[in-house]
Amino acid sequence: MLFKRRTKETLGERLKTAFWPRRSLQRSVAYLVKRTLRLSATPHAIAAGIAAGVFASFTPFMGFHFLIAAALAWILRGNLVASAFGTFIGNPLTFPFIWGATLGLGKFILRGEHPSSIGPKDVGHLLWHLEFEKLWEPLLKPMAIGSLPLGIVAALVLYVLTRGAAAAFHEERRKRLAERARRRAAAQAGAMAS
User: Fold this and answer.
1) Residue 61 domain-assigned?
2) How many domains is the chain partitioned into structurally?
3) Which of 40, 138, 158 is nearest to 88 (CA)?
4) Minimal CA–CA distance to 133: which of 144, 142, 141?
5) Which of 21, 22, 137, 145 is the least crowded, having the fewest Cβ atoms under 10 Å away?
């Protein structure tokens, strides 16, 4: 088979790659940023897509982040590919912080305090037996409520940053292409004259 590995990866190597990129995290983030800025869409569409993906990552509905992001991007007239890129803000490194913040803020908004109502063993038991209705009140509802303000703030911040970066990137690219076309036209005119 073409592009097959000579030595098979071990389970440990596959797990490590799942949580940490092979090259480096900085290189992967830089690639994702460049790939996002190179999308052929308006700066608003790119920024709205990223914002939709970021907001979706703050919701507790794992497995539906791409769908939520795509729906929000469609409503905001954002780019669907950018919305998928925006969901990368939620990853195994950031989810514990996002979930902790959304749960704490949600409990504070709903009750004004932080009661301890469900433990890790209870969550595991309820998930194993697929009893999601019993998870809604103590866990999912506060996380959903807390995700709204946090997700909106994060989405707005990244919208502003992405729109500015995309506008600057597109303007620089337009200038570079105009200069290249001017040089090509001058070379063709010089070739025609001689």
Assistant:
1) yes
2) 1
3) 158
4) 141
5) 22
